Amino acid sequence: MIFKRGVSSSEVDSLREEIASLREEVATLRRQNIKMPDRVADAVQPVVELSKLSSALLPPVSFGGYSLTSSAALKLVRTVVERRPRNILEFGTGQSTAWMARLLADVGYGRLVSVEDDPEYYESIGKELESLPGFGHLELRLAGLKPLESGELWYDPSTLEDIADVDFLVIDGPSDRSARRPTFEQVVSKLVPGCDILIDDVHTPDMKKLVGEWLEDHPLDVVDANWRRERLLHLRLQN
Questions:
Q1: CATH code (residue 152)
Q2: Is residue 51 part of a domain?
Q3: Among 60, 172, 203, 213, which residue has the least CB neighbours within 10 Å?
Q4: What is the extent of the structural domain holding 147?
């Protein structure tokens, strides 16, 4: 799931020191008139920018065993900051949840509904998130997987009956990626025109195929072309 590596306060301090070290190395290269390799610049810049964009630098919460690249995390934060959504729907709770809730708290408005299908993780993550800034803008929902009329597994639709006017959608669940296929059929009526859609795991063969099907079957535009590096695809529902 998105950005789920637990980050302790000591790791935050370590990351800050790493950023400072990277800046010094870049400054040294420039003083010596040595051109920084593009691959180094690509790796350094997102980390530096990410540290500037949010005061909640990697909240010290235990989210499990997965992480988002710095480039992908920067894309998530930057898109929320630029688009200023009011109704966010997220499938797959993780550290992205903490980021988005904090950003909503910073602007003082907005609602984030994050849907999780793992009961044990739902319980543990709820306790962790309660202490973070932005929790008042966040609603966690447990939704087990159930067979739809088509026979495919997906979240229990009854847990989403009140959801409407979604202008920002994050797809990083269910944890079983094969159960993500019905997502658009189930939620497209709940999205407003121009809704921003971020999809994780698009570097995997199954998600590449699934995204291709969604693009063929629904009025979606690809917003950027950097998903191969970031593993996070940004789409937008056509007006």
A1: 3.40.50.150
A2: no
A3: 213
A4: 70-237
pLDDT of residue 182: 96
The residue count of the chain comes to 239
Task: Profile the chain (239 residues) by mean pLDDT over runs of 10 residues.
Answer: 46 58 60 51 50 49 53 81 94 87 88 95 86 83 95 95 97 92 96 96 90 94 76 91
pLDDT at 224: 82
